[in-house]
Amino acid sequence: MTQPATEKAKTNRPFRGDHVGSFLRPERLKKARAQRENGEITNEDLRKIEDEEIIKLIAEQKAAGPKAVSDGEFRRKWWHFDFLAGFDGVELYDAEQGLQFHGKQTKALGIKVTGKIRFNGHYMIDHFKFLRDNAGDAVAKFTIPSPNMLLFRATFEEGVYETEEELFTDLITAYQEVIAALYDEGCRYLQLDDTSWASFFSEEGRATIRAKGKEPSKAAALCARAINEAIAERPADLLVTMHICRGNFQSTYFSSGGYDAMSEIIFGGLAVDGLFLEFDDERSGGFEPLRHINRPDLTVVLGLITSKFGELEDPERVKERIAEAAAYVPLNQLCLSPQCGFASTEEGNLLTAEQQWEKVRHVVNIAHDVWADA
C-alpha cells in the first residue's frame, strides 16, 4: 500500500551532497562503442567493457564522497531516447536534423510511436541490476526520463492513437509497470529527468508550445498529471526525485528562464519527494519562486555547481547562496548538487575527468560544511 508523501519524508530524502547521475564517458568506452558500430567488435565485447568501466566509475564515485552511485548512463547514447525506445510501440529513427542547442546541434536522431505503448520487460532493468550488484554499501541511484519526454519529443504514426487520453493512459501504465519492476529488483532511489518544464519558463518557449497547437497552461497541467500518475503507486520506501533541466549538450543549453511562470504547479503540485533544480547561472532566475513550496517533506536539491565548465565555484559564495535559498525553504529541506549531469549524451561536456571529480568533491565538501547530517 502506498504511504502518503508526508510520512515518507521522515526517513527518505536525497543526500545533502548529491549528483544528477551522468558522467563523462572514458575514452576506452567511446572507442569500444565506435568499434561496435563499425562491426569490429561484438555486443558481448562492448558489454564487457561497459561492465568494467561502470565498476571503475562506482569506485570513483565512492572515493569522491557521494552516498549514492549511478552507472553514469555509460550504456546509453542519450539520456532519454535510449530508455523510451525500450517500451513496445516506441522506436528510434534517423531524423532530418538534430536538436538545436545554443551554438551546437545534436546528432540527428529521434523517437516515434509506431504502435500501442506497452511495458513488456525493459532492457534497462538489467542495467539497474548490474549497478545494484556492484554498488556495495552505497545507494544505487537509477535515472530515467520522465514520461513527459515522450509526450514532448516523440513523433506519432497516424492512426496509432485516436485520442490524447488513450495515449496518456498507455504511457502512464507502462511507466507504472517499469517503476514497479525496478523496485522489485531493489531500486530504492529513482530519478526522473525532465526538460519539458523549461519550455514553459520563457515567452519564447511558450510560443513554441502554442505553435504546436497546445495551450501552455493545459500542457503544463498534463505534464504534472503525467508525473503524479506515473509514481502514484510507488511503494513507501521508494525515493522518487525529478531533475528539471534546461538542456545540457557539450556544455551548451537549450532554454532559459526562471521558475516563476511554473512555480505554483512545480513547487505546489508535484508528488515527487525531491526536486533537482538548476541555479548555476542567471538563466535560472532567483530563489523567490521557492516560496510556493507548501510541503515540509519536499526536498530541494540546489544545482549551484555547474557541470558545464571545469572552474570551481567559490565555496563561500555557494554557502551564501544556500543561505539565500533558506530564506524561502528551511535549510533542512535543502541539499546541494551540480546543476545537471556531466554527460547527458555520450559526447559529454567540455571539461576533463579530473575536473569532473573535483566538482563532485566540491559538492560533498561544501555539503559537509553546511549540514551536520551530510
UniProtKB/TrEMBL annotation:
The family database entries (CDD domains) matched by this protein are listed as: CIMS_C_terminal_like
One of the protein's GO biological processes: methionine biosynthetic process
Q: Does the keyword Iron-sulfur apply?
A: no
Q: Spans of biased composition, class Basic and acidic residues?
A: 7-21
Can you tell which superkingdom this protein's organism belongs to? Answer: Bacteria
Q: Where is this region: Disordered?
A: 1-21
**What InterPro entries does the record point to?**
Met_Synth_C/arc, UROD/MetE-like_sf
Record keywords, A-Z: Methyltransferase, Transferase
Q: Which SUPFAM superfamilies match?
A: UROD/MetE-like
Q: Name one Pfam family in it.
A: Meth_synt_2
Q: Which GO terms describe its molecular function?
A: 5-methyltetrahydropteroyltriglutamate-homocysteine S-methyltransferase activity; zinc ion binding
Question: Residue ranges of the Cobalamin-independent methionine synthase MetE C-terminal/archaeal domain?
Answer: 20-347
**PANTHER family the UniProt entry points to:** METHIONINE SYNTHASE
Q: What protein name is recorded for this chain?
A: 5-methyltetrahydropteroyltriglutamate--homocysteine methyltransferase
